[in-house]
Write a structure and sequence with these properties.
Length: 527
Amino acid sequence: MTSHTSTNSQSISSEVDILIVGAGLAGLFLALKLAPRKCTVISPAPLGTAASSAWAQGGLAAALHPADSVALHAKDTVAAGGHLVEPVVASLIASHGPERVRDLLELGVPFDRTENGALALSLEAAHSHPRVARVAGDLAGAAIMEALVNAARAAEHITLVEGVKAISLLQDQHGRIGGIVAQNIEDETTFRMPAKETVLCAGGSGGLFQVTTNPRSSRGDAIAMAYECGALIADPEFVQFHPTAIDVDRDPAPLATEALRGEGAVLRDAKGRRFMYDYNEAGELAPRDEVARAIHAERIAGRGAFLDTIEAVGDEFPHHFPTVFAACEAAGIDPRRDHIPVAPAAHYHMGGVVSDIWGRTTLDGLSVCGESSSTGAHGANRLASNSLLEAVVFADRIATRLREEKLHSTSGLLFGEPPIDLSPADLSELRVLMANHAGVSRNEEGLTLLCNWIETKEDIRGGARALTVSRMIARAALERKESRGGHYRTDYPQEDIPARTYVSKNDDLKPIITRVEMDSTADAKSA
Ligand code: SIN
């Protein structure tokens, strides 16, 4: 069997049933699960080469150990999320985790095994039990993507279109989405790809920050495109900063997986003093946001921050954590002997396009999956290795829905607004300002300066996508006068009432920000 691959943009201008925008884990898993229903997947780069999924080191969290339980996994997910996780969604992803890991095993993902043949499960921060299924130590993302790419290329029901990206959504006068305006990466020609159902699976927003572990091209385009068409966006201010990006002046910054701390690696300052217990009694396994803030504080104080893996991993490093070892080696660091310099980096956007438990957005004809979405699974702070889990659980649910759904054509389509590009100089300045003022530590003065800078640029140049999403993040962060999860305000260090943020566009194209209080006592119901 061969896939129906097309790179000729003109050949796909007739309407397709299901168009999947993005070919990371969410997009390819969804495409495979849709069988036998036909779908088209577009990817700006050759499959498997540009999606952040392939860079995931830790793995996929699922309650797979007999001594673990779905209820415990859901409880940890809710606890990490700062009272903003929707309990129903936490239960949903936890309960479907084991089945989805079995799907991946069937697709050939070689998850690590213990000596007696059971899946080897790692411990990561804020998990009460080891439950992260991994591959060859730190190669989970790459191995999962390899299996999915091979399966997608062999699948008859999938048409793969590589070298093409979405630049706008097509929308009719009733607000229904009917496909995309696409751009051929090579010659920049644009063309329409009409579709009955469009599914955004286009990754996160880390590239808006100067230091990120995401591909630089991940700049929240899916959020901006959906917002411009009137979709509801939730919790844009909640960005997760991974505590231990390797600080070797690379863009994007290589990651030193949290699994290293799960194996016993410790954090020290430049003088060798172990500092995490000054900040949290769980030490190096405190929730990710707290570890990121501690490292940030040590660095600001001039003491530096380093990951010491010498005792915990030592000579096993090259084969237990080959990706991290290669990144260290390339920078002249030998983690068997040297401490690794680390810094927090923008890693995951908890906010995104609002999705119900079947992946539907607030716009007809538009679904969303993966990091572009806000399902309610992550609240203010995502639990480690729950991102791959959420992507596969929701991809499966969207496929279940769309396999059966009667899809409708859209009539009288309008072209979406073509995006305005930000100049390279403005983008560099924006990334520095976002890191300085909307990063690990935020305050009114910095956020006001940032909002003013963005709004001035928008007035002069119009709304480039990177500005639209940055404005949403900065404005919501300015208005959230409290600290919670990944959002830390030095001027409001306490938690206030738990409330989610919703952002939509009004008729004057200005954002409307609404706060909706959460019932933090709500019981997890089965979904
Ligand atoms: C890591 O391996 O530390 C990253 C995993 C994740 O982002 O959940």
